[in-house]
Amino acid sequence: MDLLQIIFMGIVQGLSEFLPISSSAHLVFTSNFYKVFNNMPIHQQSNLEVFVDIMLHLGTLIAVLIYFRKEVLEILSALIDGIKQRDYSSYNCKLALYIIFGTVITVLIAFPLNEVAENLVYSPVIVGLLLILTGIMLFASERYSNFLTDKKSEIDFKTSVYMAIAQGLAALPGFSRSGWTIASGLFRGADRVTAARYSFLLSIPIILGASMVYPFIKIDMHELVSYNWTDIIIGTMVSGVVGYLCIKYFLKFVGKYSLKVFAYYCLIAGVLTSVFFYFCK
User: Fold this and answer.
1) Residue 191 and residue 46: Cα distance in Å, rounded?
2) What is the rounded distance in angstroms from the CA atom of residue 258 to the CA atom of residue 138?
3) What is the pLDDT of residues 19-74, one digit of tens each?
4) What are the domain boundaries of the chain?
5) Does pLDDT of 200 surpass 90?
6) HSE-CB of 169 using CA atoms within 13 angstroms
């Protein structure tokens, strides 16, 4: 992988991680487009590609932590106070417990899907079809939400469970993590901004865990040393900067506008990529 490819993938990751269009799908598409145009076999993925993917996700994690630094500190503080006082009634303390419990649910669902998700990297046609399902999910949740007259501005326990299940299913590339979690929040009656903010907070433990644990399990340490860390760090920084800007403007967008534009995008991108890779296989 050269620097230009890593930078481009960093931009793609930064944009697609927080927009409901599936960052994993776009990284699969980007990687496989590169292989097609360089006459490389699609059914080939190196540990380097996997590790770059993880590092780009780490960049967007840093973006979330910086943007929501105040909320994260408040939630952690409320949890500590709740444990000390044995009083878990404050909203921020409940959020902390929801995120912890939601992370457990996500792992229980995502872990059995891990092998399937890894194999889908070699199947961009199927990933494209899953992206179409994400578009349908966004359409359905928006339509349902439009019929509600009283939307919730706080996350309750049942909503957090629905969103955690959605995040677990989004282990499959093409199922947008933010798209499915936000849509699940809308189905539970939350407003778009509330669902989006909680979706981003819920992603923190999962991305952090994957970034820290996966490389030590799957990749040999001697191999890690041989990587071009300068290029990888540049790509990670690009991913973080683009991700931060994306969070900022996406939250403003969903406060005013529908998610239908992203649903249209998922449908069109899913169809086009499925057709393209079907004839390039």
Assistant:
1) 41
2) 10
3) 999 888 888 888 777 777 776 666 555 677 778 888 898 899 999 999 999 999 99
4) 3-280
5) yes
6) 19
